[in-house]
Amino acid sequence: MRKGMLGFFVACVTALTLVLGGTALAADTIKLGVAGAHSGDLASYGLPTKRAAELVAKEFNAKGGVLGKKVEVLAEDDVCKPEVATNTAMKLISRGAHVVLGHICSGATKTALEIYNKEKIVVMSSSATNPELTQSGRYPLFFRTIASDDAQAKLDAEFAMNVLKVKKIAVLHDKGDYGKGLAEYAKKFIEESKKAQVVLYEGITPGAVDYSAVVQKIKQSGAEAVIYGGYHPEASSIVMQMRKKNMKTYFISDDGVKDDTFIKVAGRYAEGVYASGPKDTSKNPLAIAAIAAHKQEYKSDPGAFFLNGYAAAQALLNAIQKAKSTKGEAVAKALRTHAVDTPLGKIKFDKRGDAIGVGFSMYQVKNGVYVEVPTTAGAAKKR
Predict the structure, then answer these.
(1) Mean pLDDT across the stretch 180-194?
(2) CATH 3.40.50.2300 given to domain 149-280+361-373
(3) Which of 65, 142, 197, 250 is spaced 20 to 30 Å from 153 by Cα?
(4) In degrees rounded to 5, what are phi and psi of residue 114?
């Protein structure tokens, strides 16, 4: 859609509903938009955050809501695709979302932010880790409850070199904003350290049926470890093909793979795989309560980024309450000024929009589940 048409569309919606990004206090409810992959291969990332938002809204509503109004959750599916995210953002705007929890994938988030920016709507992601989203300065109303990929890539690279003690590393990515961004940082950290050599750096095609060509390149390169930037569908295929060829190469990936769906798909071949992910805060009393609420409401364990999504929903609604407004600038100021107790701990946000004190840990698949492992010398080396 052309820029002029988009402006006309939004103007019409504004006239018929409310002043978008303004105080919106005349609205009947506080509208919490939730955008992400709610269907498709990556729904296991998006649905936990959607459910977190629903639970937090229920919690706030039981205590009288926000600014004396009930919280209403508006959910829209972007399937984690940038080409869909624009339409998703426009739908949430047309429905009068005051703030948005989302998107899930970095590429979709980046595309959608161009739309939200124009309407001065605060957006907070539980999982979009591309550094540029906060570090470029282009998105002053964007926040996240997860650390950025430069920190994650450094952890992955240092784990490979300092804990696994490998000297030859293959770095792969899925060519997307998230996966390629992480891979570029990992490659940079490895080369700057001079402790190891990047013997293969290559992008793969997402959704391909056969990755035997790149698996063969890994084997021929002599790589002792693979660092992969991307999501679980492709990672599971690559790992399965590597193990079927009896390759003992370490496989290290990111929070796009640190998901139970990866283990379900890869099956026994998932054993020994490493993946970085958000720090384990499951012993935090608020995390215990949030997980229990999920089990009671949805009769299942929460999935990836649930606690990050829960914290994001709490932070957004708390900021509106503190600001006494849904105006973007006022909500953003409150997020940077007022700390809030969440399952991730007490958090507030720095001037860039990153949550202070949030970071990553390393996990390994052991007996069919991800288990946190030490990130200093002496960690387990099961392949």
Answers:
(1) 97
(2) yes
(3) 142
(4) -60, -35
